[in-house]
Amino acid sequence: MFQGFNDSTIKYFEAIKQENSKSIFTENNIYYLEGVKYPLEQLYYELYDYFGGLDTDLLSSERRCISSAYNDARFCNGKPMKEYFYIRFKLNRASKKNEVGFFFDASLDGYKFGLNIYHMNAGGMEKIRQYMLCNKRNSTKIIKEFNEANLLDVRGEKYVKSCYPNENKVLREWLEHKTLSYIHEESLNQTFYDRKLLNTVLCAFDSVKNVYMMLKEALA
Fold first, then answer.
1. Which of 134, 101, 95, 97 lies closest to 116, judged by CA?
2. What strands, in cross-sheet order, belong to the sheet with 181-186?
3. Whether 209 contacts 144, CB under 8 Å
4. Which helix (H) or strand (E) holds 25?
């Protein structure tokens, strides 16, 4: 059962930040196990149960959902160990473009969670716009419900000039984005070390689940 992260989480990442090397990882392996690997696995299983009730297409193995301790050697720039960790439950597409997924990320700088569209391109955003324009009433309802919950912030670059001046204000706010994501960020507060972190994350995921279904259908 997930009970939050702990002092070992901080000790491990402080050690890696001071000296990012495989030898430091080995020396601090107990902190990694107690503070990162085991809590992440517990969180994964709790989220697995949640997403099993939402959409089984999101379910995947631990290896695919949980970050490893190591950076990709091709792009690590002399830093072999990750200085952050994450869990991602996402729809895996053959092209790897426009993959909709839920996430939880954390580092010494803080933690964040929400819904993202990975490797999003202009074609994916255009599909979302066309879907919303063809389903205005339902899309507006979904956006209003999301806004009323007010648990995640809409992120993403917007066009400077209004491109849909004749659409309703609620719909227009999303239509005029070049990219979209739905995120909440916090510093490493007391919630991070408690089981209520899970409840906070699940409430946020509940608030965006209809948005997820809309995006999944739009990008199918």
1. 101
2. 84-90, 99-107, 110-118, 181-186, 153-155
3. no
4. helix 22-27
Q: Are 152 and 208 in contact (CB under 8 A)?
A: yes
Q: What are phi and psi of 82, to 5 degrees?
A: -65, 140
Residue 57 and residue 99 in contact, taking contact as beta carbons nearer than 8 Å: no
**Inter-residue contact 23 to 72 (CB < 8 Å):** no
pTM equals 0.95
Going by the DSSP 8-state scheme, the letter that residue 192 receives in this structure is G
**Type of residue numbered 210:** N
Separation CA 35–CA 5 (nearest Å): 6
Please give the distance of CA 60 from its chain centroid, rounded to a whole number. Answer: 15
Q: What are the tens digits of pLDDT across the range 81-138? A: 999 999 999 998 778 899 999 999 999 999 999 999 999 999 999 999 999 999 999 9
What amino acid occupies position 150? Answer: N
Rounded to a whole number of angstroms, the CA Rg of the chain reads 19
CA distance 146 to 114: 12
Residue 150 φ/ψ region, left for φ over 0, alpha for ψ in the -120 to 50 degree band, beta for the rest: left
Is residue 146 within 8 A of residue 215, CB to CB? The reply is no
Cα 59 vs. chain centroid, distance in angstroms?
15
Amino acid of residue 31: Y
